[in-house]
């Protein structure tokens, strides 16, 4: 059903897609979590066929400084450190020589799961458990609440340190900071956030064998002005959100937006995502349905 609907919407918005894909005044910033290799490969082929050139974090900074000599740049990144990044994503990067940035939450690499994986597993046993509350708690309270949950007994979902070391040797892979425990930055004290960033950086340098690029991704895309100040003080040059917009020359380097692709999305759906069509379309539908429900 979803693939069928994506195909219909692609045809309906084909003129807009053609117009947007011809633009040379923006940088296309695309990210995902654990897409399948087939899904990613189709998107890479489609983008390259339309003249896009994949760029590195350094080239992204050049773009923001107005010195990048690429007509249609696209920057690709992946968040957290999912096992599928090693098994599915990395082979596509190697095959097509596409650079990508991996924002890694290092505690999840060591544990084999992320704290929200443990919370979701606990909710299966206790449906009354509210996952949303964990995202809103002060960080210390969240840590204590997660530790009080039953131990995680599910399958490994993250890359292993050895897998991370292996992909880090690739000329197409850049490892970057996503905090150690995938914390929600505005919920941290300055000291907590500084420690999270420092520990993540130390582990990534150990596994990657070199200093990481000074680019950061806010976990869950959540950030506050004081978080930007901390990153600047720590020497970071850029930071990314999950806001679905294009990057242009006026973009704040500490609020770089990114368009999200799906884990198992079809090519038409991913195209609708990267040009900001899919989510707004369904947001309008939901608003329309909401109005109708209020009238009843």
Describe the secondary-structure layout:
Layout (H helix, E strand, L loop, with lengths): L1 H11 L1 H8 L6 E5 L4 H13 L3 E3 L1 H9 L7 E8 L2 H14 L3 E5 L1 H6 L3 H11 L5 H6 L2 H9 L13 H8 L4 E5 L12 H19 L6 E3 L7 H9 L4 E3 L18 E2 L6 H8 L3 H18 L1
Parallel strand pairs: 1-3, 1-8, 2-3, 3-4, 4-5, 6-7
General description of the model:
Strand 3 (73-80), helix 5 (83-96) and strand 4 (100-104) form a beta-alpha-beta unit. The protein starts with a helix and ends with a helix. The strands form 2 sheets. Strands 1, 2, 3, 4, 5 and 8 form a 6-stranded parallel beta sheet that branches. The chain is built from 14 helices and 8 strands. It has 296 residues and is an alpha/beta fold. The protein is 50% helix and 11% strand.
Give a brief description.
This protein is α/β, with parallel strands linked by helices. It has 14 helices and eight strands. Strand 6, helix 12 and strand 7 form a beta-alpha-beta unit.
What attributes does this structure have?
alpha/beta, six-stranded parallel sheet, 296 residues, disordered C terminus, 50% helix, 14 helices
Order of helices and strands: HHEHEHEHEHHHHHEHEHEEHH
Q: Supply Rg.
A: 19 Å
The major sheet is characterized as: 6 strands, parallel
Helix content: 40-55%
Shape: globular
Strand content: 5-15%
**Mean pLDDT, as a whole number?**
95
* C-alpha termini separation: 28 Å
Structural class: alpha/beta
Which residues sit in consecutive blocks of at least 5 with pLDDT less than 50?
A: 291-296
Number of helices: 14
Counted beta strands? 8
């Amino acid at each position: 059903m979803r693939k069928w609907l994506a195909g219909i919407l692609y045809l309906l918005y084909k003129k807009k897609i053609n117009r947007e894909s011809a633009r040379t005044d923006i940088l296309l910033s695309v990210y995902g979590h654990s897409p399948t290799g087939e899904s990613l490969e189709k998107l890479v082929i489609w983008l390259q066929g339309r003249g896009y050139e994949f760029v590195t974090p350094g080239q992204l900074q050049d773009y923001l400084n107005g010195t990048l000599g690429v007509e249609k740049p696209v920057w690709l990144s992946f968040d957290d450190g999912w096992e599928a990044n090693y098994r599915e994503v990395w082979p596509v990067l190697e095959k097509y020589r596409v650079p990508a940035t991996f924002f890694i939450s290092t505690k999840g690499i060591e544990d084999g799961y992320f704290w929200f994986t443990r919370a979701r597993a606990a909710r299966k046993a206790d449906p009354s458990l509210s996952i949303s509350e964990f995202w809103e708690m002060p960080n210390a309270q969240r840590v204590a609440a997660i530790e009080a949950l039953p131990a995680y007994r599910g399958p490994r979902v993250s890359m292993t340190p050895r897998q991370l070391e292996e992909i880090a040797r690739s000329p197409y892979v850049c490892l970057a900071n996503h905090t150690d425990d995938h914390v929600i930055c505005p919920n941290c004290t300055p000291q907590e956030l500084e420690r999270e960033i420092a520990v993540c950086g130390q582990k990534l340098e150990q596994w990657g064998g070199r200093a990481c690029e000074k680019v950061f991704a806010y976990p869950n895309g959540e950030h506050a002005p004081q978080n930007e100040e901390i990153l600047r003080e720590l020497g970071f040059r850029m930071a990314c959100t999950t806001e679905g917009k294009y990057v242009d020359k006026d973009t704040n380097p500490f609020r770089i937006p990114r368009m999200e692709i799906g884990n198992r999305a079809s090519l038409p759906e991913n195209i609708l995502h990267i040009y900001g069509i899919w989510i707004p379309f369904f947001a309008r539908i939901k608003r329309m349905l909401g109005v109708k429900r209020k009238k009843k």
